Every structure is written in structure tokens, then in C-alpha cells.
Amino acid sequence: MRRIWRNALLIASLCLNVGFLSAFIIHIVWRSHTHSRPDFDPPAQAKDQFDANFSTFRDSMASLNEELGTEKARLVDILASPNPSQEAVQAQQDKITAVNARITKAFAEHLLRQKRLLTPEEQRQFFDFIRSRTRGRDHR
């Protein structure tokens, strides 16, 4: 009897482990699939320029995001100091706002560059895609 229970528990344990492992693998595959699969595929004639524009945009965003992180870290340092002055806090907040404004401007300029490469129907699809990607999320 003891042997039957041991075998049953061993089989149940194996099934649970296989189930958890399968769920984990499916999650990883699904996640990588949804992040790498584009919902908008630019037309063939504009794809090279579209990709070049995006590469340039991504590089500029990397430097702006790094700058934003640096400015936010400085704000935390100011706030962590023994007696932070309101002027220093406000000045640092203004710097953060300025970097955010540059990020927003770069984003708008990038979308306008991409828009010029597309037909009106492709533009509609592209902006539907952008809306779905930016709705309710902060991509920085």
C-alpha cells in the first residue's frame, strides 16, 4: 500500500512540474512573440527608410531617457539632502520637465517623418497601432 501511495505522489509531482514548466515556457514564448511581432508592417517600398527612421529615433530616445534618469536621480539626491531648498527642488523639476518636453517633441517629429512615407490608409493603420501601443502606458 505504501508503495502505491509513493508512486501516485511521484506521478502527481511529475505532472505538476511538467505543467509548471510548460506554463513557464508558453509564457516566455508568448511574451517574446507579442513583443517582437509587429502589429503594423510598413509597405515594402518604404520599409528601409521606415526602419532607418526608427533606428535613429531609438538612438535619440536612449540618450534622452538616460538624461531623464540622471535628472530624476539628481532630484532624489536633492530631496534626500538634510535641508533641500524649495528653489533647488523647483529648478531640478524644471530640468526634468524640459527633458520630458524634448522627448515628446522627438516623438512627434519621428511620427511625422514616418507618416510622410505612408499612404492615407497606411497612415490610419499606423496611428491606430501607435494609439494601441501608447494608451495607458509610459514607454520610457
Distinctive features:
single chain, 140 residues, mainly alpha, 4 helices, flat
Question: Would you kindly provide a brief summary of this structure?
Answer:
This protein has 140 residues and is mostly helical.
How far from one another are the termini? 60 Å
Strand runs, count:
0
> C-alpha Rg, in Å?
25 Å
Silhouette: flat
What share of the residues does DSSP label as strand, in percent? Answer: under 5%
Describe the structure.
It is a single chain. The chain has 140 residues and is an all-alpha fold. It has four helices and no strands. The chain has helices at 2-36, 44-80, 86-115, 120-134. The longest helix is centred in the middle third of the chain and has 37 residues, at 44-80. It is flat, with a radius of gyration of 25 Å. The chain starts with a helix and ends in a 6-residue tail after the last helix. The model has no long low-confidence stretch (mean pLDDT 83).
Topology:
Layout (H helix, E strand, L loop, with lengths): L1 H35 L7 H37 L5 H30 L4 H15 L6
Helix pairs in contact: 2-3
